[in-house]
Amino acid sequence: MHYLPASNRYQNMEYRRCGKSGIKLPLLSLGLWHNFGDVDVFENYRKIMHLAFDRGITHFDLANNYGPPYGTAESNFGRILKKDFLPYRDELIISTKAGYDMWPGPYGDFGSKKYLIASLDQSLKRMGLDYVDIFYHHRPDPETPLEETMGALDLIVRQGKALYVGISNYAAPEAAEAIRILKELGTPCLIHQPKYSMMERWVEGGLLDLLEAEGVGCIPFSPLAQGMLTNKYLKDIPKDSRAAKSTGHLQETQITEGALKQVRALDALAAERGQSLAQMALSWLLKDPRVTSVLVGASKPEQLADSLKCLDKMAFSPEELAEIESILS
Questions:
Q1: Domains defined along the chain, listed by start
Q2: pLDDT, tens digit, for every residue of 91-108?
Q3: What share of the chain is helix, strand, coil (3-state, %, to 5)?
Q4: pTM for the complete prediction?
């Protein structure tokens, strides 16, 4: 089938400026961490991408080792791009990253210039692109000088392989230093991608303030705490859930009775607001103007359509916010 995007795709999405840059991002962006690998069904994730763009999601976020297997999310994204999205390339923000384990040996992990340059070259080949819009260093490397890692990001922009650069998983002190070095090099840091949700709030201890002061955007990942902030775990651990898999990022041990109690109370509050728990969790992140966009994943189009409904109810009363704090404390 030939894909024609919805003509009204920009009418129902709100876009927020990313820090002090020329870039605006949709309030929700699509993350391709899971569900786009070779283990997944091509026509299913193709439909997810169609729905995303039809609804004004212009930003697609990848990394070198997304899959599984490693690299396959980028290859599959490249196939869909070629088939359906090439005429719309200039309407899209495509990001990828390097920093975690990618290939064997000492040059396929962390933060060396060798790894970052080689990884992006591979990513561009897999996706069939000349450049990405944003290239991230995926996590800090305690052993490589930050000057080398940030110097590599600066070089990548000067080579025309990325338009902007970002960092991910950096704590406030490391982020401050990275932002300073990039500024001195003349390639400002566009955006930071931290793990942030109602259940994981470390960014509130200084990172959000730093990003605001420096004019850097913020795009949280894992906004639903690996599925904890959905209706999945309200009763127990379903057999097909991430927590039931021994390899998953959410382990059964994390789903304590205390956590379940919080999730049930949050779910009841969401119902009073006329939202699902997942929708409320997304709205809750977006209530902060320092959050540029929130990354959502989806295993089927219906799931993405459900997440998009969070945009219908973004406001919280002071009472609701106070109740959320008391549930979580």
A1: 15-227+277-316 (3.20.20.100)
A2: 999 999 999 999 999 999
A3: 45, 15, 40
A4: 0.94
